[in-house]
């Protein structure tokens, strides 16, 4: 077995699919007996939609979601409608649907998923990892790499002895999916009252997601809340329970923020919540994990195939650790901005006024949506290290888009001004015509369409030029794909 993934959530499934696109044998293990249908996450942001679009998945997901033309920071609304993306909105879609569609996609590609298969231990050496699997069909599986995508209480992280430092919870939030006998007239979001705030959101006809956050208590995370616990807490804050009944499930969370001190220990890696947890403000958690998976997938595949040395895996932490650290930082700020009391009320009023300034709104919104992420990639062009814009193109007389060129999960050398460039069998070389004269880049503005660019499988630019020159191309191809000109 090439790669074993612990955890069949969105991160693990996306990583499995990325590896299968690259021809890597993958086994996904999950300790649960079956998928629960529970949905802690309830939406995805623009950059995650772009990533799904890069693999042709948005046609599967869009019919199950609803477009919300806004986001928020600590419950203060922000408009995303002018952001330079095909998806300038939040897509309200429950995690269970995303997992269902990702699992079908991954299985179609050849992924094997095993339930009731907890990781009990592992031993690694210079050549691979022996994974001890529990359950009735347990045993020992030998693989080249093990990736822990098994959540905030990750068994893989604990067994690897990887530290998970950060800040403890200062509050408790609870959520429940249920039916309402007396629903509110419209959406209730982040309504502040007394010791906390509450929300009522209708995701699908007939049932609602309700959330209540209390800033005056911290409960044992190991405890399992009941529906009556939720109803009592909701009434204390909201003054009503809207006649809630017939719960699907109840869960609780806090604002603890922790990050693994390293994402890799030899042949063992971490991704998603196994690598970072935070207050679920702004809906960034699932998005962060999926983006981890797409960054890691093609790199791990290259190493497993023998196309690149294991040093390429070091760039996974180098690139993704700062992104997660920034999410922990901004969610701590959002937690503070959500607290009750007149002092925070005054702060929120001031903050709301600041968000009316476009530069402030864009800076925070681009951060929440991850459209502004720029990796530290060698090169002088403004696009280097940034996500590639999904421009309309013509290839061999046929209309297409940049994202459609990435459906195979392979690197693309895209030539836009007609000049032929040297390539490799590891890279798709595509000559195209771009009708527009400029592209819009977040935090930069409009730039001239480049003459050529090298796009990594995760949709980030490894090299670009405005000239009819290949200077720096050989270095970029060798660095990222071990494929010199």
Tags for this entry?
485 residues, alpha+beta, FAD/NAD(P)-binding domain, Alpha-Beta Plaits, Glutaredoxin, 3 domains, 6-stranded mixed beta sheet, 11 helices, 31 strands, globular
How does this model look, in words?
- The protein has 11 helices and 31 strands.
- By secondary structure, the chain is of the alpha+beta class.
- The protein has 3 domains: 3-167 and 258-369, FAD/NAD(P)-binding domain; 172-254, Alpha-Beta Plaits; 392-481, Glutaredoxin (3-Layer(aba) Sandwich).
- A hairpin with a 2-residue loop joins β15 (188-193) and β16 (196-204).
- α1 (10-21) packs parallel to α4 (95-108) and α7 (285-305) packs antiparallel against α8 (314-337).
- It is globular and about 70 Å long.
Set out the fold topology.
Blueprint: E1 3-6, H1 10-21, E2 26-29, E3 43-44, H2 46-54, H3 58-61, E4 66-68, E5 71-73, E6 76-78, E7 90-92, H4 95-108, E8 112-114, E9 119-124, E10 129-133, E11 139-143, E12 145-148, H5 155-160, E13 164-167, E14 172-180, E15 188-193, E16 196-204, E17 207-214, H6 227-238, E18 244-254, E19 257-260, E20 264-265, E21 268-270, E22 276-277, H7 285-305, H8 314-337, H9 342-354, H10 358-369, E23 392-395, E24 398-401, E25 412-415, E26 428-431, E27 433-434, E28 438-441, E29 445-448, E30 452-455, E31 461-465, H11 473-481
Parallel strand pairs: 1-2, 1-12, 2-8, 12-21, 25-26
Antiparallel strand pairs: 3-7, 4-7, 5-6, 9-10, 10-11, 13-19, 14-17, 14-18, 15-16, 16-17, 19-22, 20-21, 23-24, 23-27, 25-30, 28-29, 30-31
Helix pairs in contact: 1-4, 1-7, 7-8
